[in-house]
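I am still getting used to backbone structure tokens and would like to learn alongside you. To get us started, please write out a protein record for me. Start from the sequence, derive the backbone structure tokens from it, and show both lines together. Once you have written the record down, we can walk along the chain together:
***
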Amino acid sequence: MSITAITLPKSLAIRYALAGWAFFIAENTLLSHNRTYLITSIFSNSETHYHYFYGSLSTLASALTLHGYMKVRNAGPFRKVGRGWLGLAFGLQSLGLIGLSQMAPKLQIPFGYGPGGEEVKNTGPVAPAAPAQFQIRCPFDFKTSDHDGVHGIGRVSRHSQLWSFASFSLGAAAVTASLPQGLCLMGPLAVAVVGGGHQDYRFRRGMGGVLTEEMDRRTSNVPFWAMVMGRQGEVGEVFGKMMGEFKGLNAGVAVATAGLMALKRGRR
């Protein structure tokens, strides 16, 4: 895997690539950090008005980010994208889609063969087993399981949504020849690092949410950090638990989707 070294010019394209994400991160950080002051001193103790203002600025920031991306899409300067980058993109986007898939209801095969629900009359000392039969069920398993709060994708990061999206976007950046476009696609990584870290800072202090000492100790913002540092128990055992808690079929669909995307790129 190699990449030709290119010095980025101070072009309008680079400014477009960075401006939207910079504004998005800044407004989220500043408004959330000064939440109490804004509600009490600016919005007359009205959380509703604060949320209206926050939501309006966040919408504007998102629109500017999208506008910036459209401006830098396929803009120069460019770099050569080799096959090694295709493999990296597949890995990163697989991880991102796996993480996002864990937030959806658990997928299950919608048919099977097993004991039916018909009652069997007990005429002897031992109740006969229900006869096996073909079954059709919902493809989504909405049952929830009890756990101690550190479970599944939550073991990986406190902000798995942000990091999953960042991983997917980094995969897209890896196979983007346009340097400004690739730079713009790295924006979600900055959001995960800065936004996730700042939310933890606020929640530790009870600002807009709560991060208990126990949850803070056992989990991390940076993916896998708490796991490899042994905060959830013996490392091998913890990774085994995580794999057992994962929604396997969801993850399989996620990897298959990333694979199809990689095949499509490889044919270009």
Q: What stands out?
A: The beta strands are 106-107, 111-115, 132-136, 140-141. Residues 1-8 have pLDDT under 50 and may be disordered. Residues 47-72 form the longest helix (26 residues). The CA atoms of residues 194 and 228 lie 22 Å apart.
